[in-house]
Design goal:
Oligomer: single chain
CATH superfamily of the largest domain: ATPase, nucleotide binding domain
Number of domains: 2
Order of helices and strands: EEEHEHEHEEEHHEHEH
Low-confidence stretches: none
Number of strands: 10
Structural class: alpha/beta
């Protein structure tokens, strides 16, 4: 089976694929200080529970320190297996129609590949993670750029840290948009605020594109607000890992 690894700022997501079928997936927290041996032991421990035999590895990371450890881990623990780390020079089939292609995170490139392959274009991927990323894909599968916004969890944390009488609360939908207490007021502003933010940004992007075939929600926090977003047409939580599988197939 193919092992796909996406190391993000907050979480690391792994999945195994048998052909194009996703078989197992795991989500663990990212620690940029983890050594190659710690990564290797963690990954092998997760895989051992299902007695998975790995035949190849595809990976990407937006965390430079973790990327270094990942490369060392692959060389040490999976040296006899074909592996692909998404970086400049790796074949993705995605043209980067932006000012500085070197600035684009590998996750946005593989999201573009997967979204265009699965849904066509023009399309938009809304990735709810540490930041909320909007990735815009042209009708020809080009990455056109997008937008960044503070993520849901860091917005909760910022309010609790900067406002004396506010505190961290559960990130969930409140019973009403009109909060009756401090907790509900926080939840309402963030829940409906993020949904409105997504709707407005996507609406403006659609105006510039002229049409959009699909708006795909992904990321660990997508399920929290997508039911309140009018513009979301698809929910694919594993789109980055699916893109990694596609990149692996193009290079091995």
């Amino acid at each position: 089976m193919l092992l796909c690894i996406d190391i993000g700022n907050t979480n690391t997501v792994l999945a195994t694929f048998d052909g194009d079928k996703l078989v197992h997936s795991w989500r663990v927290k990212t620690d940029a200080r983890s050594t190659a041996d710690e990564l290797g032991l963690m990954f092998r421990g997760l895989l051992a529970g299902d007695a998975v035999e790995i035949t190849g590895v595809a990976a990407c990371s937006t965390v430079p320190a973790a990327l270094r450890s990942l490369r060392t881990m692959l060389a040490r623990y999976y040296a006899n297996l074909p592996s692909v780390v998404v970086e400049p020079g790796v074949r993705t089939g995605v043209q980067l129609a932006i000012d500085n292609p070197k600035e684009v995170g590998a996750d946005r490139v593989v999201n573009t590949l997967a979204a265009y392959t699965l849904y066509g274009g023009p399309s938009i991927v809304v990735d709810f993670g540490t930041t909320t990323n909007f990735d815009v894909i042209s009708g020809r599968g080009e990455f056109l750029g997008g937008a960044f916004a503070p993520g849901i969890e860091i917005s909760f944390d910022a309010l609790a840290a900067r406002a004396a009488q506010l505190r961290k609360v559960e990130a969930t939908k409140p019973r009403s948009v009109i909060g009756k207490n401090t907790v509900e007021c926080l939840q309402s502003g963030l829940y409906f605020g993020f949904a409105g933010q997504v709707d407005r940004i996507v609406e403006r992007m659609t105006e510039e594109l002229g049409e959009v075939k699909a708006v795909i929600a992904t990321g660990g926090l997508a399920a929290l607000v997508i039911n309140e977003c009018r513009v979301i047409t698809h929910h694919e939580p594993m789109i980055t890992l699916i893109g990694l599988r596609m990149v692996y197939e193009r290079n091995i």
